[in-house]
């Protein structure tokens, strides 16, 4: 009996010691590299039509505008409220969420208890995942774009409903409206 207890304690201590030697930054770097490779493979296998593009390959962030107003940059400021239609997908093209009822019905994710309407949120308060908010910050009202980004700009190592942990994400976005916030932005 003492031998089993001793063996279990040694195994437990060894596991903890080995785990403590793992550098969390290195783990994040490994995950980012894996995500970037998966995103690059997706982009090679799936053509995304665009009239304008933005890429940050080092970060694994890609954005493709299907409709661009070609206006000068009118930056969103913290507190500005946006209204956005969106469809979220995984790299296997499985749709996990949308603000559009017909898209939900067509992809068997319709929920009759949900009110399908554009997402409305104030920018700069962390109410959405960072990759989503960053993409919106690069858009003007009336624009449509597809954005792809690594898991660290999404839900990271946390699973969220149909989204597995450490999943790169794709969003199709349509920025419908920007209402200037309490900062009294011009």
UniProtKB/TrEMBL annotation:
It comes from the Bacteria. It catalyses: [protein]-peptidylproline (omega=180) = [protein]-peptidylproline (omega=0). Its EC number is 5.2.1.8. One of its GO terms (molecular function) is peptidyl-prolyl cis-trans isomerase activity. The keyword Isomerase applies. Residues 1-22 form the signal peptide. Keywords: Isomerase, Rotamase, Signal. Residues 79-179 form the PPIase FKBP-type domain. It is an enzyme of class 5 (isomerase). SUPFAM superfamilies: FKBP-like. Belongs to the FKBP-type PPIase family. This is Peptidyl-prolyl cis-trans isomerase. The lineage of its organism: Bacteria, Pseudomonadati, Bacteroidota, Cytophagia, Cytophagales.
């Amino acid at each position: 009996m003492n031998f089993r207890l001793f063996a279990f304690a040694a195994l437990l201590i060894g596991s903890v010691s080995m785990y403590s030697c793992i550098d969390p930054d290195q783990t994040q770097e490994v995950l980012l590299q894996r995500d970037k490779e998966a995103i690059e493979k997706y982009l090679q296998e799936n053509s995304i039509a665009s009239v304008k593009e933005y890429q940050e390959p080092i970060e694994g962030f890609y954005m493709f505008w299907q409709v661009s107003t070609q206006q000068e940059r009118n930056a969103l400021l913290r507190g500005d409220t946006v209204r956005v239609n969106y469809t979220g997908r995984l790299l296997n093209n499985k749709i996990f969420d949308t603000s559009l009822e017909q898209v939900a019905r067509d992809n068997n994710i319709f929920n009759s208890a949900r009110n399908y309407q554009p997402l409305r949120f104030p920018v700069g308060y962390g109410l959405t995942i960072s990759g989503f908010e960053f993409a919106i910050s690069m858009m003007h009202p009336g624009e449509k774009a597809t954005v792809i980004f690594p898991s660290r700009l999404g839900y990271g190592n946390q699973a969220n409903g149909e989204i597995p942990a450490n999943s790169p994400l794709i969003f199709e976005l349509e920025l419908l409206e920007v209402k200037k916030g309490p900062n009294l932005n011009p």
